[in-house]
Amino acid sequence: MSAAVSSPVRRRALEVIRDHADLAGRRVVDVGCGEGGLVRALTGLGAEVVGVECGREMLERARAAEPAGGERYLEGVGQALPLPDAAADVVVFMNSLHHVPVEHMAAALSEAARVLVPGGLALVNEPIADGDFFQLTRLVEDEEDVRSAAYAAVRDAAAGGRFVERAEVVYLNPVRMESYEAFAQRMGLIDETRKARVAAGEELLRSRFHELSEVRDGAHWFDQPARLNVLVRTGG
């Protein structure tokens, strides 16, 4: 039985993760690690972290960044993780499960179970299709259906016997953007199709970016509703 927690307050994703996972000294896999920001943050907390990413440009950026410690980056996809069985204590999907093709989402969660030790944690953090940031990003690609599919895959995994759900937490994740240009670059890093859509829709996107964001501390901020599901790997 999971403990559902509704907490519609502003909190950073890393803080929510730290509430539910002991990270120091743990072997952590960040699936879909992007440019490696979370990998480096978790390494700074004492975890032994491997980031897995399929996007070549983001992987290059992750490897080029100043390391936080002994973190590593591997090229791969969630549905076929380049890691052996029982290689991790924690597997994190930080806003990445909905980027896995819908037909492979169940396989990605099965792969998380495979690489986890019994009692290990799968932490699946997903943006909810709501709020100002979603209204902005949906102008590039409307992810409502894939985000719903990702949540359904999490529910199925929790009911399928390889995991037991420990908690579900809903909160507001603050998204900070230095400028419209930073937003456009971030959106374009996902794939070439998005990069082209951002370029083609620049006038509308720029206008909506400034309408929907809150300017404070010299940056543009959005509150993104998010959901963290904490799953415990079963087995002896």
From TrEMBL:
Is Methyltransferase included in the keywords of this UniProt record?
Answer: yes
* Key words of the record: Methyltransferase, Transferase
Matching SUPFAM superfamilies: S-adenosyl-L-methionine-dependent methyltransferases
Keyword Methyltransferase among UniProt keywords: yes
Give TM regions: none
State the Gene Ontology BP annotations. Answer: methylation
Q: Provide any one GO MF term from the record.
A: S-adenosylmethionine-dependent methyltransferase activity
Query: Which residues are in the Methyltransferase type domain?
Result: 29-123
Pfam families membership:
Methyltransf_11 (PF08241)
User: Mind telling me what this protein is named?
Assistant: Class I SAM-dependent methyltransferase
Q: Which organism is it from?
A: Azospirillum thermophilum
